[in-house]
Design a protein that fits this description.
alpha/beta
Length: about 260
């Protein structure tokens, strides 16, 4: 008899590489894996909001490839950030049609950092789009987002792979990491700067990877830029291939399939 595997899913930050997340999620959907809870940082938080709202991976990649999505980003004339994200753009409501996190179809967690206090703030309640945008507010590229008593920035600065909210839920934790552990430096000034960012993120991710029952990543992610949106389809396909391979191996090893 066919069976289903129920998991909790943690999605890292990684900007345009988020297409890899969507490929992995498509693989989970195709292989009868049920996402019972989802946690995300940065682009992972945006996608988590879509997953929690019941939007399919294929619908989300279509949205990400649209001209309307690219128009969400506006030049900010160097006021607290080079760009700002239009939180009221209609296209964001297509990604996350459920307005509040506590109304999601499954438990959904968004990780941000409060800039004044330097503390990690995790949300499972509140305004979906505003909090997802706040989690993706990578300063100095994007301005911080004021929300309630907080001034929120990208959660990836302190927890780029947010498995912590999922630890007590009882399901196997599958994490998807958009920053491969082994990155080759190209020796240029910009690549050295990018490498420094990677090392900072990796330092905060190693423990979370160890806490995961399965971590899905791929060295080929290094071939995809963080802020270039011209290769979304190829990145999606990479995620689908790696996700299919990884989850099928995981299911056969763990033998935790449950009957319908």
């Amino acid at each position: 008899m066919a069976g289903t595997l129920k998991i909790s899913l943690a999605l890292s930050g990684g900007a345009a590489r988020g297409a890899f997340h969507l490929g992995v999620i498509a693989a989970l959907e195709r292989n009868n894996v049920e996402i019972a809870a989802v946690s995300g940082t940065s682009i992972g938080a945006v996608i988590a909001a879509g997953v929690g709202s019941g939007v399919s991976a294929f619908d989300m990649i279509r949205i990400f490839q649209s001209k309307a999505f690219r128009k969400v980003f506006h030049f900010n004339y160097f006021r607290k950030g080079f760009f700002r994200i239009n939180e009221k753009a209609a296209i964001l409501k297509e990604i996350a049609p459920i307005k509040r996190l506590e109304q999601m179809l499954i438990p959904t967690f968004v990780t941000c950092v409060d800039l004044p206090s330097g503390e990690i703030v995790r949300f499972s309640e509140g305004e979906t789009v505003k909090l997802a945008v706040a989690s993706a507010a990578l300063i100095p590229i994007f301005r911080p987002i004021a929300y309630e008593k907080y001034m929120l920035i990208d959660g990836g600065f302190m927890d780029n792979l947010p498995v912590e909210p999922l630890l007590e839920l009882g399901n196997p934790i599958v994490s998807v990491n958009l920053f491969p552990l082994h990155v080759k430096s190209k020796g240029t000034l910009f690549s050295s700067f990018e490498r420094a960012i990677y090392l900072s993120i990796l330092a905060s991710s190693k423990h979370q990877i160890e806490q995961s029952d399965l971590c899905i990543s791929d060295p080929a992610l290094n071939d995809f830029g963080l802020f270039t949106f011209g290769q979304l389809e190829a990145c999606f396909e990479l995620g689908y291939r790696k996700g299919s391979e990884s989850i099928l191996t995981f299911m056969s090893q763990k033998s935790i399939m449950k009957p319908f």
